């Protein structure tokens, strides 16, 4: 019984440490960005009429710092991923993903 408790505690600690590390990484990247999350989000939403941001993150992709937004549109289950350059504010890419493709990406 004690072993189970120790193993469960170790797993919980590892998960919490991973979450903290991810948040610290996001904060560090956001501090490097010249374009704020809010400004990038407005740019992304301008590309998806009536859209709502479901998820947002900042990431280094192909050597570019970018804001990535998953935008849902009313009346569809599809997600539009809009990537905005965190240094210039320009849209890097815009890609529609079906709900099934988005679910695969998350898992």
What does this protein look like?
This protein has a domain at 33-106: Nuclear Transport Factor 2, Chain: A (Roll), CATH 3.10.450. 13% of the residues are buried. The chain has 3 helices and 4 strands. The chain has helices at residues 2-32, 37-47, 99-106; strands at 52-61, 64-72, 79-85, 91-97. Mean pLDDT is 84; it is low at 12-17. With 107 residues, it is of the alpha+beta class. A 4-stranded antiparallel beta sheet has the order 1-2-3-4. The longest helix is centred in the N-terminal third of the chain and has 31 residues, at 2-32.
Global morphology = flat
Major beta sheet summary = 4 strands, antiparallel
Instruction: List segments where confidence is low: pLDDT < 50 over at least 5 consecutive residues.
Output: 12-17
Task: Determine the strand fraction and express it as a percent band.
Answer: 25-35%
Question: In oligomeric terms, what are we looking at?
Answer: single chain
Helix content: 40-55%
CATH architecture of the domain at 33-106: Roll
Order of helices and strands: HHEEEEH
If you compute it from the alpha carbons, what radius of gyration comes out, rounded to the nearest whole angstrom? 17 Å
Which terms would index this structure?
107 residues; alpha+beta; Nuclear Transport Factor 2, Chain: A; four-stranded antiparallel beta sheet; 31% strand; flat
